[in-house]
Inverse folding.
């Protein structure tokens, strides 16, 4: 199953403060979620989904990096007919709980300055990247969206749609 990267990958995963390359972003990392349907009792957590495709050394390397995080809690394994998945579970630290709430409401421009800087650092975002213009709610992006949508977007409107619930929740059975 091909997993499309969701908004949590760009706005929640940076909580770890770990660079994308350190956990094989382009190879084995699939996505970030704020909930897992089968573990719905878990609150104030986020989850990173990986498929290591049988690459034991890559798994061990990523596990070592993620285990060092102060927020690391555990890992979950899920096997389907075709693939084995690893889900690393992290606690959302108190200092970021309000940022996660803003994210869920789609209030990207209201992230604290520190949190914006963290996202920019982890994703190597410059003012040339779309994510910068979304989070900074720039006039350039507002005008471009207004043109694309053939509708004037007022300055109070966020410039990226609110994350859809189904994109935030990992449903392990969907991986089968």
């Amino acid at each position: 199953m091909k997993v499309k990267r969701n908004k949590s990958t760009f706005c929640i995963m940076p909580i770890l403060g770990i660079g994308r390359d350190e956990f094989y972003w382009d190879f084995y990392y699939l996505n970030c979620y704020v909930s897992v349907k089968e573990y719905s009792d878990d609150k104030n957590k986020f989850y990173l989904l990986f498929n290591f495709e049988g690459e034991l050394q890559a798994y061990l390397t990523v596990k070592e990096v993620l285990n060092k995080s102060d927020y690391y809690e555990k890992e979950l394994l899920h096997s389907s007919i075709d693939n084995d998945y690893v889900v690393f579970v992290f606690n959302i630290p108190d200092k970021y709980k309000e940022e996660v709430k803003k994210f869920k409401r789609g209030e990207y421009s209201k992230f604290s300055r520190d949190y914006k800087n963290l996202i920019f650092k982890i994703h190597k975002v410059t003012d040339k990247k779309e994510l910068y213009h979304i989070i900074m709610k720039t006039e350039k992006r507002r005008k471009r969206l207004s043109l694309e949508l053939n509708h004037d977007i007022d300055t109070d409107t966020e410039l990226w749609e609110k994350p859809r619930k189904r994109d935030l929740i990992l449903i392990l059975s969907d991986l089968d």
Remarks:
- The mean pLDDT is 94.
